[in-house]
Amino acid sequence: MVSLARKLIASRNPIPISKSYELGNSEALQPFVPFSRLQETKLLESHLVSLLDNCSSLNQIKQVHAHVIRRGLDQCCYVLAKLLRMLTKINVPMDPYPRLVFHQVEYRNPFLWTALIRGYSIQGPLKEAVCLYNAMRGESISPVSFTLTALLKGSSDGLELNLGKQIHCQNIKLGGFCKDLFVHNILIDMYVKCGWLDCGRKVFDEMSERDVISWTSLIVAYSKSGDMAAAAELFERLPVKDLVAWTAMVSGFAQNAKPREALAFFHRMQSEGIETDELTLVGVISACAQLGAAKYANWVCDMAEGYGFGPANHVMVGSALIDMYSKCGNVEEAYKVFVKMKEKNVFSYSSMIMGFAMHGCANAALDLFEEMVKTDVEPNKVTFIGVLMACTHAGLVERGRHLFDIMEKHYGVEPSVEHYACMIDLLGRAGQLEEALELIKAMPMEPNSGVWGALLGACRIHGNPDIAEVAANRLFELEPDSIGNYVLLANTYASAGRWEDVLGVRKSIKQKLLRKDPSRSWIEGTEGVIHEFYAGDMTHPNSKEIKEALEDLIGRLKSHGYEPNLSSVPYDLNEEHKRRILLTHSEKLALAYGLLITDSAGSTIRIMKNLRICEDCHSFMCGASQITGREIIVRDNKRFHHFHNGVCSCGNFW
Questions:
Q1: What order of strands is seen across the sheet that includes strand 632-635?
Q2: How confident is the model at residue 46 (pLDDT cuts 50, 70, 90)?
Q3: pLDDT in tens, 453-503
Q4: Is residue 251 part of a domain?
Q5: How far apart are CA 534 and CA 581, in angstroms?
Q6: Is residue 568 in a domain?
Q7: Is pLDDT at 574 greater than 70 in this prediction?
Q8: Based on the domain organization, do 504 and 537 belong to the same domain?
Q9: 478 domain residue, yes or no
């Protein structure tokens, strides 16, 4: 120990106690007023611990350690445990310094053991923390609650479920911590992170005492797993609902594609007088983006300003607003938010690039990317998904190839399966199906459903049933219960006139009891009310007026040469039946309603749709925009289509 003290003191010139300028108030180390020896020691220990609390570097900690040794406290577990915790805090490796400090104490108490165990649990290797725990138990030293929580935290961070379960058993066996709130909260966290949510819930149900952390950790876990019913059930039972709990519910519903529920919870939160923070607002903004309603978009933007989280000074809110306005069909407003932002990071740039891409503004997206790389903002994975998507929607094959080639060489972004999916989509939409298939075969990772789905979708566009079969068979293995893949294959067969194969696919759908997500479109009505329409459904309160408006519009279009594209109906039906199906597609019903509720000839009609727009509806919207003088914006599940004066922004490439 004397040699250690000499090394510590020699590490730099010892600071005279009366002139210590790095350790804070040196006067506290001056001679003490007369106290008993025990009182004096306790005061000195407390002071040294306080000094350690204020240390921010290894050099400062070593100086305090030198004082510990000089004052004869080199065996004081209380002070040395604090020293070990501070070494962990500033990420000093456990070997050799902390380990040496630990081993030179002859009689180690549970807190000193725990300090070193905690260090290894945080820094690793976790195995060493377990060995130390076993050695501690081998010396018949009982752990404290912090010993178990340190090991549980290490198990949680390392996803070491088996170790976590063993520590849980230790907790039960020892008995002393069965009612410890902190231990149980860490247990819940460990089970949740390791994917054993049911076990986390069982721990929660057996707790005799719970705090807001116990409740909210499970609420967040259920939200992430998509079980919003269980999350809501817990939330309603929560005795005191704080901002964290409310935010977990708002964000949870938004992340699970339940925007109306998210907004309903936010309105409840406001009525309860709960303060709104930046994270809550981002959840609300995400919900508005999913609804795609302009009125909600303007409302939430005004609200962000009112709460002091305006996009000019809050980059997280600004990036979310860019995404929201883009998804609500107003890319111009999204760009205004982007320009207004004083600070721009990779998320704001990527959101704007993605916004331009989904609206078919390929040149604007690529120009913004060039602007971004000239700044200090480095593009990331999402940025390249955006620029590749922009190339895909504009058919810029060579530009897409170039960006894909340089993303890793120039910017250090390794292509992921998502980037390969973009490239397959780019090549496939351009009709280069064989090259797309070869690229899939050359992928360094296993292709996922997104990759094969992009190829199958391209086969549907270009009517290639042979390659479609290859893609579909792989998708049936990866997603056996996804009806969309069966429908795409059936539609591809239908385009090629292979009706027997169509019947075979439909037979498989019936045998597997799969159900298709019905085609639906929605439009924002007066007072911000969202009106939904399903294909062939005439149950809307204004159905009579909608039918009349639609028939009038169809008549006017036919006088301008419109004829329904019967190939858009993938069924072996007679022509008249196909016409009736086509003329009641959900987006046509939504358009008719939009024309009814808006009087201004110059007003824009915005329609959202859950599936890809068909060829007939696409040409229908082009013609409608010309004869009504309206701009019609349709968001399908792939991109935005801006119909104006008879043409679409996609250039018939979608």
A1: 530-534, 520-524, 605-609, 632-635, 640-644, 647-648
A2: confident
A3: 999 989 988 889 999 999 999 999 999 888 888 888 988 988 888 888 988
A4: no
A5: 12
A6: yes
A7: no
A8: no
A9: yes
What local confidence, expressed as pLDDT, does residue 371 receive?
94
Q: In the structure encoding, which two tokens stand for residue 69, read together?
A: 């040794």
Distance CA 290, CA 311 (A): 20
Among 481, 511, 541, residue at a domain's last position = 511
Domain containing 534 equals 520-648
Residue 635 belongs to some domain of the structure? yes
DSSP code of residue 432: -
Q: Do residues 494 and 594 share a domain?
A: no
Q: What is the pLDDT of residues 169-192, one digit of tens each?
A: 888 888 767 678 888 999 999 999
Cα 165 from Cα 162, distance rounded (Å): 5
Does residue 558 share a domain with residue 495? no
Distance of alpha carbon 381 from the chain centroid: 14
* Cβ atoms of 142 and 106 closer than 8 Å: no
Residues 57, 59, 64, 68, CA torsion sign: positive
What's the confidence (pLDDT) of residue 291?
82
Q: What are the CB-based long-range contacts (under 8 Å, 24+) for 287-290?
A: 287/250, 287/253, 287/254, 287/259, 287/260, 287/262, 287/263, 288/259, 288/263, 288/324, 288/328, 289/320, 289/323, 289/324, 289/326, 289/327, 289/328, 290/254, 290/257, 290/259, 290/327
Give the Cα separation of 425 and 428 in Å (integer). 5
Phi-psi region of 308 (alpha: psi -120 to 50; beta: other; left: phi over 0): left
Angstrom distance (rounded) from CA 456 to CA 334 = 32
Interatomic CA distance for residues 363 and 210, integer angstroms? 55
pLDDT, tens digit, 9 for 90 and up, residues 255-278: 998 998 999 999 999 999 888 889
Dump pLDDT digits (tens) for 121-162. Answer: 999 899 999 999 999 999 988 888 889 989 999 998 888 898
Q: Backbone phi, then psi, for 114, in 5-degree steps? A: -60, -35
> Is residue 599 located within the same domain as residue 618?
yes
* Model confidence band, residue 363 (pLDDT cutoffs 50, 70, 90): very high
Q: Does 449 share its domain with 529?
A: no
Same domain, 541 and 505: no
Shortest CA distance to 59 belongs to which of 104, 9, 17? 9
Computed over every residue of the chain, the mean pLDDT equals 86
Are both 456 and 486 inside the same structural domain? yes
Three-state SS at 26:
helix
Question: Is the same domain home to 491 and 525?
Answer: no
Please give the structure tokens belonging to residue 495. 């385009």
What is the rounded average pLDDT of the residues 607-619? 89
